[in-house]
Amino acid sequence: MLHFTEVLILLDNNRYCSGQTLAERLNVTRATIHNCIVKIESLGVPVEKVRGLGYRLMRPLDVINPAQIEARLSSQVADQLFSLRCLQEIDSTNRYAAELELPPTGRFSLVLAEMQTAGKGRRGRHWVSPYAANVYLSVVWPLQRPLHEAGMLSPLLAISMLTALNEMGVTGLKLKWPNDIYGHNKKLAGLLIECSGEINGACKMVIGMGVNVFMSQCENVTIDQQWTDVCSNTQDWKYSRNEVAAALVNNAVATLTQFENSAVDGLVDTWSRWDLMKDKPVELHSFQSVQSGIARGIDNDGSLLLETSHGVEKITAGDVSLRASV
Q1: Catalytic annotation on 187?
Q2: Contacts 24+ apart (CB under 8 A), 234-239
């Protein structure tokens, strides 16, 4: 059965390719080519169709290349890489990564995908994942420190993501507890950390990272919150998705290594510098209730400090969502 990617790789943004030519090259019918084009468009890839000329991509595709990512890893991070998998289509990179073997201590495995059919964020939210438009990756890490200390990793890794994007020239960045990145007050990136294993034994940590890179150039994107992407927040954006992925991995693995070596400091002050909600009235939504207060930054363990009529309370991430009061 013909996969849509076999048609996609034959399309170009600089020239037209007729349906007949595509059908002959792939030894299928014109109807099959038409169905693949419909599938490609449904994934957010804009295709121009001109009678008598054929099909043409309306933007160049920036595809993931594992070799290019490895070449851009720092020497130390490259030495720590245990395995790398790049998938065309997967339900969720985190789900796939969770089934991989646990890397040796101090090393990591990396999973990337061109698209996710069931990508998710915190609290089970759907993460929209158009084909070859954004960065979807998961890092598998063998956690050595006690699981109860891992709460600070959400803000730490969010800071590492923001730092990578900021160094590439992305402007207007802010952090929203526990691990979302906003650009000019709109959602731009986020991460999802999932753990499995014993409380006092070996723990497999899977860190899913998603960054909107070229989302604004896609079609049929429907998201239930305000969003933005990297290319909309950067003049003359010049980096590939491979470069973005490598920068995220370099920073994340360096952060994880520092965390394991108890070399983390300055979390509170660094978070405060980028804090979107600091000293603002907020609402904390859980499945059972809504709690109002003033966001007062975070504590050293990554907990949110929420000032209420009862004083300042520490809130751990769990199944809660922080929102600005309306």
Answers
A1: yes
A2: 234/168, 234/169, 234/170, 234/171, 235/169, 237/169, 239/168
